[in-house]
Amino acid sequence: MDGVTMERSVMRHFAFDICKSFQGSSRKARDARRSRWEWRRAMLQDGFTSVLQVKTRDEFGKELERFASNLGFKIVNAVAIVDHFGRDSDFIHVNNVPIEAHEIDVPQNSRRDPVMQHCKHASVPIIWNQDTYTSIGLGERWEAQARFGFHTGIALALHLPEGKHFFLSVDRDQPLPNDRGEVTRLVADLQLYAVHAQDIALRVLLPPEPERDLPNLTPRELESLRWTMEGKTAWELGNILGISERTAVLHLNNAMHKLGCINKHQAVLKALRLGVIR
Predict the structure, then answer these.
(1) Would you tell me how many other CB atoms lie within 10 Å of the CB of residue 119?
(2) pLDDT at residue 50 in the model
(3) What is the average pLDDT value for the chain, to the nearest integer?
(4) SMART domains from the entry (predicted)?
(5) According to the model, what pLDDT value does residue 4 have?
(6) Mind listing the domains of the chain with CATH numbers?
């Protein structure tokens, strides 16, 4: 789902939940709720616009904190992640996490953390609390992080082309609202903000990519990428080119390696961006 489609989907669900939340309320309560909602929407909309003007890492951090505060959360964490072929991924953080809490965020803990593992494999946001940890026998980890204000929160990750990812979470020491519609709106706002912030995050957090010579792809590797772009499998590719499926896979793997990508779909996207296939 691209950014525009996601934004429209989020706003449709947001509007639907707003309508439901107003049904059955007294006029006075409804007016008060509408007033609070309009104030928060104005603040959040300003955050959506402001983050697009960010030029530096420090500015990005301040915008994140302002947005999280308007959303009702004290802690915010944004991470730009870049996967590499044959070596460890890069993680670049911007957050206001207490320094003392960094001791619980070591890599071996993250590999077991249910929130991080969910976001690693899915794009659907996760709403987490103590039960998220105790249900899989990690109650002690929740206790450790709760000391620093991590009682509950919302997290999501956007998985982008070329092995890049954007993780965003907001956390606090108070329970989330009991109103299901209100929680839905919080999730929708975070999703929409992530869509706005992802490009800015990658631009200000990641070092500029050095100018490189175009990869020296063989004719077979180029053909393999072109047919992959058309949706062909390795087996179909082998039949088209008159080679075995194993050889077709080898050509694709070589192309991926030369392009610095971790899968064939990312390789196709990068080849298109570089203009080596059309």
Answers:
(1) 23
(2) 84
(3) 84
(4) HTH_LUXR
(5) 42
(6) 39-205 (3.30.450.80), 219-274 (1.10.10.10)
